[in-house]
Amino acid sequence: MDENTNVPGKGAATGSLVVGIIGVVLWFFGYSSILSVILGIVGLVLASSSKKSGFDGGTRTAGFVLSLISLIGGALVFVACVACAGIIGALGMY
Fold first, then answer.
1. pTM value?
2. b/e per residue 5-23 (b: at least 16 CB within 10 A)
């Protein structure tokens, strides 16, 4: 039996990593980047919860970094998509 199976906070760290990866992937689909922002926030909360539980492994760090990248990048892509749609609508190029 592996001794690392019941480590407190490991599940939250893994969840943070998975949510961060999904959030980064959602950047590339335009308006779904708002989901990237939401998933970035969820991932940061999970990483924080994992740290409070006492888990301080590489999985938590990677999940935190990917969730932060997901949050910032998703917000930038979403704002860019909204700005492009607004410009196209204002110019009547639809």
1. 0.85
2. eeeebbebbbbbbbbbbbb
Whose structure tokens read 């990677």?
62
Residue 8: CA count within 13 A, CB half-sphere? 6
Give me the sign of the Cα torsion angle 83, 88, 92, 94: negative
To 10 degrees, what angle do helices 10-25 and 58-91 make? 30
39: pLDDT strictly greater than 90: yes
Q: Residue 1: helix, strand or coil by DSSP?
A: coil
- The letter for the amino acid at 88 is I
Query: One-letter amino acid identity for 91?
Result: L
